[in-house]
């Protein structure tokens, strides 16, 4: 450590890494990669390549792989030095750690041990897609990857038909055409959306339009990382049967007034209308 330089705070540091352009890493992220006592990465080869690009030396420090197949023993080995005041920088393969990557269990165990957890924010495919999609961003829901099976995917989309807020999801290039067919059939062909491919990379592409227009444009299987942004359901999209079902479910655990508020928000319906429907259901119980 150089004279006058502050030591890296003890604990687990979640460092966001570029989703494409290597220059997108933050100065704070580089500093943590250079000075943390130890490093962990979802993909050690990707981490080493990023460090080499920016001239960050690993030196004698440990770089441990932490991925989907890492178990409690790996977590315990990574966290033990942190209980003695050490620092560990964790990076996912690309983007912000814990967003569709295996870092959750590591953070959970760190919190359980009383270890400080810090975030060094930066690149995120979710936020990058929201920024360029041209759809409302005041409220949004991140869905990650939908289920790979066709029936499970359609069931998940049916549950989201009346969701009033912008939705962001990831999808594999191999399944994206099938998914768009389901999106059109279940959410409607006029729903606004954006298909973002290879964000921040050389062949970045953003297509905007209705779900039907985007589906028609998928003649060939697209390549690269894909993020899809979908507009929320228009107000009043929930039908009477859907409203009644939602109210019955909510009223099993909530008071009538609270259930009406929750369902009105979820379906994008006027609260007074939903409250009156809830009172009718309560009367007929």
UniProtKB/TrEMBL annotation:
Entry superkingdom: Bacteria
GO cellular component: cytoplasm
Localization of this protein: Cytoplasm
Catalytic activity: cytidine(1402) in 16S rRNA + S-adenosyl-L-methionine = 2'-O-methylcytidine(1402) in 16S rRNA + S-adenosyl-L-homocysteine + H(+)
Pfam family membership, one: TP_methylase
Record-annotated RsmI HTH domain positions: 239-281
Record SUPFAM superfamilies: Tetrapyrrole methylase (SSF53790)
Enzyme class: transferase
Major subcellular site: cytoplasm
Segments forming domain Tetrapyrrole methylase: 12-215
Record key words, sorted: Cytoplasm, Methyltransferase, rRNA processing, S-adenosyl-L-methionine, Transferase
GO molecular function: rRNA (cytosine-2'-O-)-methyltransferase activity
CDD domains: RsmI (cd11648)
Database matches in InterPro entries: 4pyrrol_Mease (IPR000878), 4pyrrol_Methylase_sf (IPR035996), 4pyrrole_Mease_sub1 (IPR014777), 4pyrrole_Mease_sub2 (IPR014776), rRNA_ssu_MeTfrase_I (IPR008189), RsmI_HTH (IPR053910)
EC number: 2.1.1.198
Family, similarity comment: Belongs to the methyltransferase superfamily. RsmI family.
General function of this protein: Catalyzes the 2'-O-methylation of the ribose of cytidine 1402 (C1402) in 16S rRNA.
UniProt protein name: Ribosomal RNA small subunit methyltransferase I
Annotated source species: Pseudoroseicyclus tamaricis
Lineage, uppermost ranks: Bacteria, Pseudomonadati, Pseudomonadota, Alphaproteobacteria, Rhodobacterales
Gene: rsmI
């Amino acid at each position: 450590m150089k004279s006058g330089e502050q030591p890296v705070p003890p604990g687990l540091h979640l460092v966001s890494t570029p989703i494409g352009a290597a220059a997108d890493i933050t100065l704070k992220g580089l500093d943590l990669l250079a000075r943390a006592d130890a490093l962990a990465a979802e993909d050690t080869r990707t981490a080493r390549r990023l460090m080499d690009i920016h001239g960050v030396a690993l030196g004698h420090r440990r770089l441990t792989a932490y991925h989907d197949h890492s178990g409690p023993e790996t977590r315990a080995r990574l966290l033990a030095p942190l209980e003695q005041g050490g620092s560990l920088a964790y990076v996912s393969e690309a983007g912000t750690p814990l967003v569709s990557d295996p870092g959750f269990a590591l953070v959970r165990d760190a919190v359980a041990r009383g270890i400080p957890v810090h975030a060094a924010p930066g690149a995120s495919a979710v936020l990058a897609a929201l920024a360029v999609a041209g759809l409302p961003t005041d409220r949004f829901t991140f869905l990650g990857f939908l289920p790979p099976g066709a029936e499970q995917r359609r069931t998940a989309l049916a549950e989201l038909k009346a969701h009033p807020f912008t939705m962001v999801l990831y999808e594999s290039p191999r399944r994206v055409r099938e998914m768009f067919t389901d999106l059109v059939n279940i959410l409607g062909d006029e729903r606004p959306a954006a298909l973002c491919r290879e964000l921040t990379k050389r062949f970045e592409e953003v297509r905007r339009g209705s779900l039907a227009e985007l589906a028609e444009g998928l003649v060939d299987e697209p390549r690269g990382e894909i993020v899809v942004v979908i507009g929320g359901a228009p107000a009043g999209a929930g039908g009477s049967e859907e409203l009644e079902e939602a109210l019955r479910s909510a009223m099993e655990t909530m008071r009538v007034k609270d259930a009406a508020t929750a369902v009105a928000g979820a379906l994008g319906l006027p609260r007074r209308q939903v409250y009156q429907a809830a009172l009718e259901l309560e009367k007929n119980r």
